[in-house]
Design brief:
This protein is of the alpha/beta class. It has four domains: 99 residues, Tumour Suppressor Smad4; 164 residues, Beta-Lactamase; 164 residues, Rossmann fold (3-Layer(aba) Sandwich); 128 residues, Orthogonal Bundle (Helicase, Ruva Protein, domain 3). It contains 19 helices and 26 strands. The strands form eight sheets. A five-stranded mixed β-sheet has the order 4-3-5-6-9, with no helix packed on it. A five-stranded parallel β-sheet has the order 17-20-23-16-24. The protein has a four-stranded antiparallel β-sheet with strand order 2-1-11-10. Helix 1 packs across helix 5 and helix 3 runs antiparallel to helix 5.
Length: 588
């Protein structure tokens, strides 16, 4: 069952979505009654669908927000959220029963709940880096469905918060402790394992054999996960003791990770393997036309029909092909893709059919081709419209007879293939121009699927930004705070001629140009996006709002006697980000 997961009054709460249409508000007659001053009597309407919900603002005083933008109506998919005031509601699927906090996690969750509500009510409240990290990790825990990813984000946040420390996941069975995951420890695993007291439970505070004063730079914070599992937060500070605030933060962090594990365990979603091929099936979309495409893919996947997938470059045609393969009965067999436009014609035939020893100069041994390797599985021919007419004829024969000969061979090789063809061209137009065989076209196109371009899928831009942002932040160990409102607006309104691939490259570039703690600003976007946005706003000279931002920063600098560290804290950005803004806005 779908439910809304949220944090309120120091409690993790769940609201099960049992009705198709739900009214949320402060009126006791509402289906979802929340008694908060910032919520209107009739605040929002939630309409439930199979894979998402639609949230509508009912002309409320304080509005509804999705991805920092105030909305009248928006679609929210699983694991995404919408916000009213300081309450953020995450759409989840699983066990809708209320979640009971343990005695250890209750104080830290109350603390985080108070931090969120206080900072919302008083925008001048300046959260320190420890508090920001606790809030960020909890929000990720509500959103992400894989515990391994939470640990990775935890490691990044610790690195940026403490500039030291490691996270290690241990598993205890009887009297044996094993390392499940060590996230790049500075020292040998055995050094820590040798200090574990096997007579104690893995999550007890006294779990490590360490005498008082033996090593003042060594700290451990056990994280209770379950009766048989535990995590150990291992911190080693080389020069001096950690401050009391840092120690309290580490204790809070440990209890927070324990809570997230239990939330995931309750839904059994933490068993998913992030490295398995199945992770490739995740298609990021909330657009109705794309959801229809996926439903069609799901319907045809179990059979062996040949599929032709058409769409502009960068729309995600191969992702759709993988989706079909991994939802078919061939999923445990090979998935082999070959790009017909990337290989010269003389080599493409050899790549497909293979050759016998001595078939041509340089053929020193027998070589099997992709047709042979893909037998029993799925063969994907990308850019099939680039294939020569001669090779098209040979491919047609294979598809008709389910057999072929290697180049230079006389042994008949039987194959059992499912063919998925991809193209960014209109093959029927090529047929009319005699550039593509008509008989081959109808052989490969039992089913035709059209992937819409990203400019026609505006609802997909924000979730794709989120996905790529998280992916590249993890890859590069960069803990960027997020995007400015203007940057997000420009990204959402751009036409994206290169489709999803262009968006992916842009987010990768933005993350790599940023430092931990930065907010990605409009100025960092590539020139084409900035020009498009300015033209859209009818302003070809300066970004909208730049004068207001300059005046605001100048006012803060003057009020704080040009103390940049203090101004950065009040703006909730890093000093590096502030210096960049000062330079960009020509503030002297």
């Amino acid at each position: 069952m779908k439910y809304l997961l949220y944090l309120r009054d120091g409690q993790v709460k769940k609201y099960p979505l049992k009705k198709d249409i739900i009214r949320l508000g402060r009126d006791p007659g509402c289906d979802f009654y929340i008694d908060e001053d910032f919520i209107s009597k009739q605040h929002a309407r939630i309409t439930c669908f199979e894979s998402h919900i639609k949230v509508e603002d009912l002309k409320s005083k304080n509005g509804v927000y999705v991805e920092h933008l105030k909305i009248n109506e928006a679609q929210v998919s699983l694991d995404e959220s919408f916000r009213i005031g300081y309450l953020e509601f995450y759409l989840k699927k699983g066990n809708p029963e209320e979640f009971v906090l343990s005695a250890e996690t209750l104080p830290v969750i109350r603390k985080i709940s108070n931090l969120i509500s206080t900072s919302h009510e008083d925008t001048k409240t300046c959260l320190n880096l420890f508090d920001k990290t606790l809030i960020t990790i909890l929000r990720l825990g509500f959103k992400i469905n894989h515990f391994g990813e939470i640990l990775e984000w935890g490691k990044i946040s610790l690195t940026n918060t403490l500039k030291t420390g490691q996270l290690m996941v241990l598993y205890k069975e009887d009297k044996e402790i094993k390392v499940i995951s060590s996230l790049k420890l500075d020292e040998n695993n055995d050094f820590i394992l040798n200090r574990v007291d096997l007579s104690r439970d893995i999550f007890e505070k006294e779990m490590l054999n360490q005498k008082m004063g033996e090593d003042v730079s060594f700290y451990s914070f056990p994280i209770p996960l379950s009766k048989r599992k535990g995590a150990l937060l291992y911190i080693r500070k080389a020069r001096k003791r950690l401050a009391k605030k840092a120690l309290q933060f580490l204790s809070d962090f440990s209890n927070e990770v324990s809570l997230i594990y239990r939330l995931l365990e309750k839904n059994k979603s933490f068993y998913q393997d992030a490295d398995a091929e199945g992770s490739l099936l995740e298609v990021i979309t909330r657009d109705e036309s794309m959801l229809n495409v996926l439903n069609k893919c799901k319907k045809i996947a179990p059979g062996d029909l040949f599929v032709l997938i058409q769409g502009e470059t960068g729309t995600g045609k191969e992702l759709a092909a993988r989706f079909i393969h991994y939802n078919s009965r061939r999923e445990k067999n090979k998935y082999i893709a070959i790009n017909c436009s990337a290989i010269p014609e003389s080599l493409l035939e050899d790549e497909l059919f293979g050759h016998e020893k001595g078939a041509f100069t340089g053929a020193h041994s027998r070589r099997s081709g992709k047709l042979e390797h893909a037998s029993g599985g799925t063969l994907v021919l990308d850019e099939i419209g680039e294939m020569s007419l001669d090779l098209q004829k040979k491919l047609l024969r294979v598809l008709q007879e389910n057999e072929f000969y290697r180049i230079g061979g006389n042994e008949r090789i039987k194959v059992n293939l499912r063919l998925i063809s991809l193209t960014n061209k209109d093959l029927l137009k090529l047929v009319k121009k005699n550039l593509f065989r008509e008989d081959l076209y109808y052989r490969i196109a039992h089913v035709r699927i059209e992937i819409p371009p990203l400019r026609e899928r505006k609802h997909d831009i924000q979730p794709l930004i989120n996905h790529f942002f998280e992916t590249f932040s993890l890859e590069n160990r960069i803990y960027v705070s997020g995007f400015s409102h203007q940057a997000i607006e420009a990204l959402q309104n751009y036409s994206w001629p290169g489709n999803v691939r262009e968006l992916e490259n842009e987010i990768k570039s933005l993350v790599n140009q940023s430092s931990s703690g930065d907010i990605i600003d409009f100025d960092l976007l590539k020139n084409e996006i900035k020009a498009y946005y300015r033209n859209l706003k009818g302003n070809t000279t300066a970004p909208e709002g730049i004068d207001h931002e300059r005046e605001r920063i100048l006012e803060l600098l003057r009020a704080n006697r040009w103390n940049k560290a203090q101004v950065a804290r009040k703006l909730n950005i890093s000093r590096t980000a502030l210096y960049k803004k000062i330079k960009k806005l020509n503030i002297e």
